[in-house]
Design brief:
Layout (H helix, E strand, L loop, with lengths): L5 E2 L3 H7 L2 H14 L3 E4 L4 H14 L3 E2 L9 E3 L13 E4 L3 H4 L4 E3 L1 H12 L7 E9 L8 E7 L2 H10 L1 E2 L1 H8 L7 E7 L9 E5 L4 E5 L4 H4 L2 H17 L2 E3 L2 E6 L5 E7 L6 H5 L11 E6 L3 E5 L5 E4 L4 E5 L9 H6 L5 E3 L2 E4 L5 E4 L11 E2 L5 E2 L13 E5 L16 E2 L2 E5 L9 E3 L3 H9 L2 E3 L11 E3 L12 H14 L5 E5 L18 H12 L6 E2 L4 E2 L14 H8 L3 H17 L6 H13 L1
Parallel strand pairs: 1-2, 2-7, 4-20, 5-6, 5-11, 8-10, 10-12, 15-27, 27-31
Antiparallel strand pairs: 3-4, 7-8, 7-9, 11-12, 13-17, 14-15, 14-16, 17-18, 18-26, 19-25, 20-25, 21-22, 23-24, 28-31, 29-30, 32-33
The structure holds sulfoacetic acid (SAT) and manganese (II) ion.
The site of sulfoacetic acid has 8 residues, from α8 and α9.
């Protein structure tokens, strides 16, 4: 440790220093980064308040009007730093085969050598925040501790919302045999230069080094980096799964409760689905949220699959969120929330308000846009960045599930895969069995939207919606999915859904949003062995009379239309899956080949 570093004495400091592994790693990182000051965070609401106050001075935060937005703050990130940078994200292992064909790979030694000079002295003149956190309820069999060292106030405040932070983490490390069981997360925003930006994962060392970005998925290292990439690697070693899935509860009028895990690629409405409000006709049903982004799943002693949400907050897309599209998200962000990269509006009394496209509020006459530039409705540009975000505590969610924090997790009744597909893929079908379900999940595709750069409407394969998040070789990941079945006495039923199928005039046929409840009801009834389905080449499908269509603007013939399977279109689909299969070259698990052949022969 350099003599010029001031370590702020606190309870957290003494707990950190009493752990020899933490102490040694911390000493190394302080010597490398040379911060002026080291602050140990405890994750309390009082501390978060102090971080916000500090941020008002440094310019990291703006305080919103506290009457309208109690406890809410605004943050603007660098305009070159507003989304995850998959091309700068690496799995760093001795052999390239460990990372596999879908990840960027760097040798671990090379990565350390490349990044060390970047970190050297990078925190001079800055404060290093030490963030001890737990992913998952601390008493859960899957709970994982991480410690993030960061020079970003925004990251410190955000992590205290998104994770269980503070003493709870030191307590887990103090249990016998746990002292060294933590993910070492080193983060610096550096000079936010994309040419010096690296998000590196070292699964063999349980280590993450992130440099040069302050954006959520790149910088809140508990989220995608730990809870998906590192965790998926650990899950493979330890027989559990880390998946990019929402977790929701659905309680039927008779009190029966089912839990569903669902994987949709980005921009397919995961957060909206996890907070779904049943339509009037389903008033006696209750839908509740366990999680909106990540599920960790394992097999319990009875051979049943259970799941926890490792996070304790939501980091959701803001534009398009309003009391029609997602009333529960609107309520979740009403207090104690950080808004990032939306538009900032100055009110008459000089306090600040926020605005975004498709919010409940009409556009303001003028505002500062997400880049801090003067904006008016005539500007012809977006005021809020399409990927602007809210960071809100889970406890704000009015439909938070009563078991969301239960260390025993929730039982998983069904797994859904989905994507945005204007043709070919029907509204809903069930896989014939687990292996067929894995094939369906592994081959899901989604059409690119205007929110992302590049051509719109191109189908991109995104296996299990995990393409950028699998922390090891996709071949082994798929084999792991097959292997998990062998551990279960009975397994969740697997379904594919597509809310986005269009008619010949290019209009969405299915009404979506709360009406997805009708599909959910069929899925739940199928999973419990109660609903009828007919066999088709793709899987088990409901007939119009098997789904409640009462009171909808669409009729049975519309329903038949979006359930139609065209052999020609499915053949095209199989051909377009080749792109993914070729990437896996000689490594494709045989089950995948068999499933494809069986599908072809069913046509
Ligand atoms: O990658 S982020 O966590 O920033 C957002 C997301 O894709 O869920
Ligand atoms: Mn996500």
């Amino acid at each position: 440790m350099t003599a010029s570093t001031a370590v702020v004495k606190s309870a957290g400091e003494s707990r950190a220093m009493s752990n020899p592994y933490v102490k040694q790693w911390l000493d190394e990182c302080i010597t490398l980064c040379q911060p002026d000051k080291v602050v140990f965070c405890d994750g309390t609401p009082e501390e978060r308040k102090r971080l916000f106050q500090e941020g008002l001075k440094t310019g990291d935060f703006y305080e919103l009007n506290q009457k309208k937005w109690p406890g809410c703050y605004y943050h603007r990130s660098n305009s070159n730093d507003v989304a995850r940078t998959e091309h700068l994200t690496f799995i760093c292992t001795p052999s390239e085969d460990m990372a596999g064909p879908t990840n960027n790979w760097m040798s671990d030694r090379q990565a350390y050598a490349k990044l060390k000079p970047l970190y050297r002295g990078c925190m001079k003149g800055r404060t290093m925040y030490v963030l001890p956190f737990v992913m998952g309820p601390a008493e859960s069999v899957l709970a994982k501790v991480g410690i993030e060292l960061t020079d970003s106030l925004y990251v410190a405040a955000s992590m205290s919302i998104m994770t269980r932070m503070g003493n709870v983490a030191w307590d887990v490390l103090d249990k016998p045999g746990n002292a060294n069981a933590f993910t070492r997360c080193l983060h610096s925003i550096g000079d936010v230069n994309p040419d010096r930006r690296y998000i590196c994962h070292f699964p063999l060392d349980n280590t993450i080094w992130s440099f040069g970005s302050g954006y959520g998925g790149n910088a809140l290292l508990g989220k995608k980096c730990l809870a998906l990439r590192i965790a998926s690697y650990l899950g493979r070693q330890q027989d559990w799964m880390a998946e990019h899935m929402l977790l929701m509860g659905a309680q039927a009028p008779n009190g029966e409760k089912s839990y569903i895990a669902a994987a949709f690629p980005s921009a397919c409405g995961k957060t909206n689905f996890a907070m779904l409000i049943p339509p009037d006709r389903y008033r006696d049903w209750k839908v509740t949220t366990v999680g909106d982004d990540i599920a960790w799943m394992w097999v319990d002693e009875q051979g049943k699959m259970r799941a926890i949400n490792p996070e304790s907050g939501y980091f959701g897309v803001v534009p398009g969120t309003n009391s029609k599209s997602n009333p529960n998200a609107v309520k979740s962000m009403q207090k104690d929330t950080i808004f990032t990269n939306v538009a900032l509006v100055t009110l008459d009394d000089g306090t600040y308000d926020v605005w975004w496209e498709d919010s409940d509020m009409p556009a303001p006459a003028k505002a500062l846009d997400w880049q801090g530039k003067e904006w008016t409705p005539a500007s012809g540009t977006k005021a809020a960045h399409p990927n602007s975000r809210f960071t809100a505590p889970a406890i704000n969610n009015p439909v938070l599930d009563e078991n969301w924090d239960d260390p025993a997790g929730v039982p998983v009744t069904a797994i859904m895969f989905g994507g945005r597909r204007s043709k070919t893929i029907p509204l809903v079908f069930q896989s014939f069995n687990w292996i067929h379900g894995v094939y369906i999940g592994a081959t899901i595709g989604s059409e690119t939207t205007a929110a992302a750069t590049g051509a719109v409407g191109v189908v991109r394969r995104d296996p299990m919606a995990m393409l950028p998040f699998i922390g090891y070789n996709i071949r082994d990941y798929l084999v792991h999915w097959f292997h998990m079945r062998k551990k279960m006495t009975d397994c969740p039923r697997i379904f594919l859904v597509n809310w986005f199928r269009k008619d010949e005039k290019g209009r969405f046929v299915w009404p979506g949003f709360g009406e997805n409840m009708r599909v959910l009801e069929w899925i739940i009834n199928r999973a419990h062995g109660r609903a009828y389905a007919k066999e088709t080449p793709l899987g088990w499908m409901p007939r119009p009379e098997d789904i409640n269509l009462e009171g909808l603007t669409i009729d049975k013939s519309d329903f038949v239309k979006i359930q139609t399977i065209s052999a020609e279109e499915v053949k095209q689909e199989i051909i377009s899956q080749e792109e993914l299969f070729l990437k896996l070259a000689g490594d494709l698990p045989k089950e995948m080949l068999f499933q494809r052949e069986l599908l072809i022969s069913r046509l």
